[in-house]
Write a structure and sequence with these properties.
Number of helices: 5
Largest sheet: none
Strand content: under 5%
Number of domains: 1
Length: about 140
């Protein structure tokens, strides 16, 4: 059964964002597990920077896999604009989550912002970019 209420008006239907919120929660759990894996396994074995790079690559791969599965099996027939809204939602939630966790841990905002500094060799920006772009790619071509 396809969920298709609404019209092709260019607006985002509320139910079209509810399922993706659940998917984002799954990805958040995966991201936390990835962070534990990075701190416990990767960094002690390969070092701080290589551990962060490997962890980011693993997280992006996991995100792409989850989204590939979600968009190929979703019961929602997404309208043209909705994958853009999903990407923006996931990106905002992820960046917001990073800043809230950083604040709760007492991390200065400048340190959290530094994680997005590509010119300083930081690769974390790949995660929000994957979250922003992948719904456009997968939602457009895989959703039924």
């Amino acid at each position: 059964m396809r969920l298709t209420p609404g019209s092709k008006t260019g607006s985002v239907r509320p139910h079209a964002l509810l399922y993706p919120l659940g998917v984002w929660a799954v990805m958040a759990v995966i991201a936390v597990a990835n962070g534990v894996f990075r701190e416990v396994f990767l960094i002690p074995r390969i070092g701080d920077y290589p551990g962060h790079v490997a962890s980011t690559a693993l997280l992006v791969a996991a995100i792409l896999l989850v989204l590939l599965v979600y968009f190929s099996r979703t019961p929602i027939d997404y309208e043209r604009i909705e994958p853009i809204g999903i990407g923006v939602l996931w990106t905002a939630l992820t960046v917001g989550f990073e800043f809230v966790v950083g604040y709760a841990e007492g991390t200065p905002v400048s340190v959290t912002l530094g994680q997005y500094d590509v010119l300083a060799g930081q690769v974390w920006i790949a995660v929000p970019i994957a979250l922003l772009v992948s719904p456009l790619l997968f939602g457009r071509y895989l959703a039924r």
